[in-house]
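note to self: dont lose this again. the chain is below, predicted strucutre after it. 166 aa total, dont forget to put it in the shared folder this time
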Amino acid sequence: MNRESTYLRKYIILKKDYLNIPGINPKGHVKIETRGNKGNISIVIENCQRDKDYQVIFLKDEEGHVKKHSVGQIITDHKGKGRINISVNLRYLELQGFSIDEISAILIRKDEDILLGSHIDKDVGTIERFLQEEMEKTNLIRETDVYVEEKSPIEPEFIEAKPALE
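---
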């Protein structure tokens, strides 16, 4: 797509459908603007955990799997509010495999915890598939750890001491 004369603006209301942090009622929105090869992503969140940092992640479907790309981080203040403007070079984003036209969802999370998320144009199940893949990876790692622990117990070896030669 020729981006030299293209302008795009999208507003996305972030939803708490995937929230797994107890005791908060967050809300937020995202504005994506692109002109030519430059982009700006503005994110505002509120009613979040105080003095925390969250990762902003783009998600896209690719060949039956969900790929993620971390765009930046947003830090909340002592009131639980956060705001960030992220400048994006669209050519660099495309080199990373994330064309702005292919991104289907945005997610804000802290480690394994999900704060807010939303599909960008229409709900195609990207976030659900991403969370399912993450859960399967976690279960696979746990099963592997348990298997290794059960199959290879460490038994002490006794070495017979020999008198020193004089």
